[in-house]
Design a protein that fits this description.
CATH topology of the largest domain: D-amino Acid Aminotransferase, Chain A, domain 1
Distance between the termini: 46 Å
CATH class of the largest domain: Alpha Beta
Largest sheet: 8 strands, antiparallel
Strand order of the largest sheet: 13-12-9-10-11-14-21-19
Structural class: alpha+beta
CATH architecture of the largest domain: 2-Layer Sandwich
Number of helices: 18
Radius of gyration: 24 Å
Mean pLDDT: 90
Low-confidence stretches: 483-489
CATH superfamily of the largest domain: ATP-grasp fold, B domain
Length: 506
């Protein structure tokens, strides 16, 4: 491997480019018209246009990407995540073009890509799955009968995809026909396949996933878990590792299950086995993502490993760099997804030009970003602009560090969800680690109130300023009189302390 074409955009393209350059590999970027001035284009050694801004005319065009690979002399392709990353036909097209595909074999993608067949394979491998149908159901009447047998509430899910697309939770029988039709429409629009299947809805579910890595020599390891239960409309918002719910025996059982799942489909490379965990801490296979995950940085922070570097090694036929007993996790990491969106307007995407950008920093802070000051966030793609991560020795300290980092994050010119993320971190349930996937929905009003309603923040900030001035005045009086200052804690001082905590101070 000498030159890698990165068939993606944004922060993941930047992140892959950096590891490739550290490994001494040349990099090739591709871009649509909307991304002509994007950071990932400027960072790569070479960059080639793909065409118009819509992804169907650019980032989803296999023929155009292969043409760039030929023109540039690239001998490998990294798909990132999203777009073509889980398309077996893309992996096969790369293989036919004698390009190294930095991802799993097409056969593994196919085995896990259709959720119903994946469930069947997992059951045969002894992996626990959520009760539900083993085949897609096309007829609404038949589906309703099956739902009655499973028992409400149930979940309708797209057979050909994930990420919350085509997913419907149905509480009552009378809501089933409309939800069934809507799920099929969304599935067809998102994946070109309207097949759906049914699962029992797990009470108080937590979404916990296991990062696995396998090589072509039959070795597979698990790198610990990530808690992904902070979700909005089945889309992850905040992820952390380790989970506050998982102890070492449970971690070992989940990890061994994930390894069995990967080996059952001949997996090679980085993958994630996603699980639902119920109120009694029983876990069930949900699906497998056959790619690098958006939230992989939290695993890197607690293990000290570079997962993209591992991808490059495995793709070239090398063995895994470490065995299971050599993988050590330390501390706690948490990630917040920063989006160009308006939470007060039902999370409406808010594309536009970034007029001013100030990024947080400091020990234990990592910001994976695909934007820069002066860049225009396009309307054509997912509006995530960065992934802000924090690591510390304990969960409480990691949350405080991330909270403070978010208070330093300044973006002018567009609306973002930074205030929303800070409010999520302030929720008592989240702080306690005692939450499930309904956390954001149950606190929606509190989390999305307009910023002008945050008079408590203003009052606390005023209290901090008042106390600072009081302290300065008292210090001057002490210096003049030679007397000692009082050690009493005033109510203003306490409000000032609360203000500092609200801003994430340690």
């Amino acid at each position: 491997m000498r030159k890698v074409l990165i068939a993606n955009r944004g922060e993941i393209a930047v992140r892959v480019t950096r590891t490739c350059r550290e490994a001494g590999l040349e990099t090739v970027a591709v871009y649509s018209e909307a991304d002509r001035a994007a950071p990932h284009v400027r960072l790569a050694d070479e960059a080639y246009p793909l065409g118009p801004s819509p992804s169907r005319d650019s980032y989803l065009r296999i023929d155009k990407i292969l043409d760039v690979a030929k023109k540039s002399g690239a001998d490998a392709v990294h798909p990132g995540y999203g777009f073509l990353s889980e398309r077996p036909d893309f992996a096969r097209a790369c293989e036919d073009a004698r390009l190294i595909f930095i991802g799993p074999p097409a056969s593994s993608m196919e085995a896990m890509g259709v959720k119903t067949s994946a469930r069947q394979r997992m059951e045969r491998a002894g992996v626990p799955v959520v009760p539900g149908t083993q085949e897609p159901i096309a007829d609404a009447v038949e589906a309703l009968e099956v739902a009655r047998g499973i028992g409400f509430p149930v979940m309708l899910k797209a057979a050909a995809g994930g990420g919350g697309k085509g997913m419907k939770r149905i509480e009552r029988e009378e809501d089933f026909p409309g939800a069934f039709a809507a799920a099929k429409r969304e599935s067809l629009s998102a994946f070109g396949d309207d097949r759906v299947y049914l699962e029992k809805f797990v009470t108080k579910p937590r979404h916990i996933e296991i990062q696995i890595f396998a090589d072509a020599h039959g070795h597979c390891v698990y790198l610990g878990e990530r808690e992904c239960s902070v979700q909005r409309r089945q889309q992850k918002v905040i992820e952390e590792s380790p989970s506050a719910l998982v102890d070492e025996p449970m971690r070992r059982k989940m990890g061994q299950m994930a390894v069995r799942a990967a080996l059952a489909v001949g997996y090679v490379g980085a993958g994630t086995v996603e699980c639902l965990v119920d109120a009694d801490r029983n876990f069930y296979f949900l699906e497998m993502n056959t790619r690098l995950q958006v939230e992989h940085p939290v695993t890197e922070l607690v293990t000290g490993l570079d997962l993209v570097r591992w991808q490059l090694l495995v793709a070239q036929g090398e063995s895994l760099p470490a065995e299971q007993e050599q993988i050590v996790r330390r501390g706690h990491a948490i990630e917040a997804r920063v989006y160009a969106e308006d939470p007060t307007r039902n999370f409406l995407p808010a594309p536009g030009r970034i007029e001013h950008l100030r990024l947080p920093g400091g020990p234990g802070v990592r910001n994976d970003s695909g934007v820069a000051q002066g860049f225009t966030v396009p309307i054509f793609y997912d509006p995530m602009i960065s992934k802000l991560c924090a690591w510390h020795e304990t969960r409480e300290l990691a949350i405080r560090r991330l909270r403070y980092a978010l208070s330093e994050y300044v973006v002018k010119g567009i609306t973002t969800n930074v205030t929303y993320l800070k409010r999520v971190l302030d929720l008592p349930e989240f702080r306690a680690g005692d939450y499930d996937t309904s956390l954001l929905a149950r606190n929606h009003e509190q989390l999305t109130r307009p910023p002008g309603d945050g008079l408590d923040e203003l009052a606390l900030a005023a209290a901090a300023i008042f106390q600072l001035r009081q302290d300065e005045q008292r210090s001057r009086q002490v210096a003049l009189s030679g007397a000692s200052a009082s050690g009493e804690r005033s109510p203003w001082r306490e409000l000032g302390r609360q203000a500092a905590l609200r801003r994430g101070g340690l």
